[in-house]
Amino acid sequence: MPFCVRRCAFFVLMLLAAHQGFSQAAAPAALAQAAKLEAEKKYESAYQVLDKADPKNQQPAVVLQKEKLLLNYYLIALNFQGFGLKDLAAGETVERLRGKEGNYSMHLLDIPQTLARLQKQFPQDYRLSQGLGDYYYRAMLCHCGEQDKTEAQLLDLVIEHYGRAHAHQLGDFMTYYAVGYGHLAQGRAQPSVAPFEKSIALNPQYPDAPYNLAYALLQLKKPAEAIPYAQTSLRLYTDPALKADAARMLGELYQQQQQPAEAKKALLQSLDLQPQHYATVRSLLELAVTTHAADATAWATRLYRLNPADDQMFSDIMDIYQAQNQWAEAEAFFSGQLPAAPKTPAAQGLLHLYLAILNMQLRRPQVARPHFLTAQTQLKKVAKPDNPLFQMIEKGLAESKP
Fold first, then answer.
1. How far apart are the C-alpha atoms of 295 and 298, rounded to whole Å?
2. What is the pLDDT of residues 157-205, one digit of tens each?
3. I want to staple 345 with a disulfide (CB 3.0 to 4.6 A). Which of 161, 193, 371, 378 is the partner?
4. Could you tell me the pTM of the whole model?
């Protein structure tokens, strides 16, 4: 009986080996056929070809191609383990269909479990490490799987698995970019530099890599090194919002380099693309006040008009003038807004409050007191009694009392 069991087991193994040998022989043809169908946007048909060639997910090359189809072309995903595919008709795109209802074929594949199993069988096949990096990076980007892990944990898994692939000369510009992004997103600017540089070397036309490298160098207080990369990203971006963001960072870098003319040019380019962008207008005001430019009041007015009832706006304007010890200029600016300021309680209350504070700073308590009183009256209409602004007003009234 034991002999029979051994024979049966051996027979099963022989069948399995024969089946695997057949599949391995069929794999190149299946991969080629699937690639052709993928190019034709017949993603469901491509997956079926691969699944027929390797239904038990025993072959790394086939499984990795399955993963590529599922991650790149899924239309719906269930916990990132069930994926809906479809052969697209003319005019259809994944981007337009993803997340919408439709008739899709569902395929269940636990990608990390399957790839981890194959890693044990094929420990020298580092394509599997790259495949795991691909999975965790996509899961992090879409927030549609691995709910038991934080974003930081997912990014560390991306770094770990892509790192193994890179150590064995596997990877492309996106895998290096993802490693750089993983470090930078977690506040580790220095280790992000080398992978971003490698990504750029592999694909100089991908704008996110030089943009993020410039940002990393900005964090490392290396503006001179960052400027060329910010310039490159600005040139490469075509989306107006992304282009505006790159120009805004370039302006900040020039400011740190004490190059106000170049800074203003970059910031104006950003503002042309996003005329109402708060941070850009604020930077232009800061640049004007710092350089004692004649258009400082114009930029302060533009920032004020974005939202005359925004406490942060008032604070920012005062801080910018204060940094240059221009208290009188700040008071003159806010006084100039009184005739046209909106009559709403918040707008009136904040304007009078900041005028009161500035006049106290200028040692003019008698001028400040009426502003404190008006601010108190107006803000009581819109703010809760425990708002810290009222403590400031009470203190100002006590100090300005005749």
1. 5
2. 999 999 999 999 999 999 999 999 999 999 999 999 999 999 999 999 9
3. 378
4. 0.86
**Integer Cα distance of 273 and 291 in angstroms:** 24
- Give the bridge partners for 77, in sequence order: 83
Residues paired with residue 107 on neighbouring β-strands, in sequence order:
83
Beta bridge partners of 108: 82
Hey, is 86 helix, strand or coil?
coil
Element (DSSP H or E) covering residue 332: helix 327-337
Q: What confidence tens digit (pLDDT) does each residue in 99-152 have?
A: 998 889 999 999 999 999 999 999 999 999 999 999 999 999 998 889 999 999
Q: Is 36 helix (H, G, I), strand (E, B) or coil?
A: helix
- Are 158 and 136 a contacting pair, CB within 8 Å? yes
Q: Which pLDDT score, from 0 to 100, does residue 102 have? A: 86
List the structure tokens of 26: 């069929």
3-state secondary structure of 76: strand
First to last CA, the chain: 111
| pLDDT (0 to 100) of residue 26 | 53
Residue 236 CA to residue 238 CA, distance in Å, equals 6
Query: Is-contact 217 223, C-beta < 8 A?
Result: yes
Taking residue 14's Cβ as centre, other Cβ atoms within 10 Å add up to: 10
For tokens 């549609």, what's the residue? 144
Tokens 């977690």 sit on residue = 186
Average pLDDT over residues 322-330: 97
Structural contact between residues 181 and 212, judged by C-beta atoms closer than 8 angstroms:
yes
Distance CA 31, CA 66 (A): 10
Please give the Cα distance from 360 to 211 (Å, whole number). 44
pLDDT tens-digit series, residues 32-63: 999 999 999 999 999 999 999 999 999 999 99
The span from the CA of 245 to the CA of 239, in Å, is 10
- HSE-up of residue 101 (Cα within 13 Å, Cβ side): 0
d(C-alpha 200, C-alpha 205), whole Å = 8
Strand order in the sheet with 76-78: 76-78, 82-85, 105-108
Measured distance CA(389)–CA(354) in Å, rounded:
11
Angle ∠(36,42,48) on CA atoms, nearest 5:
85
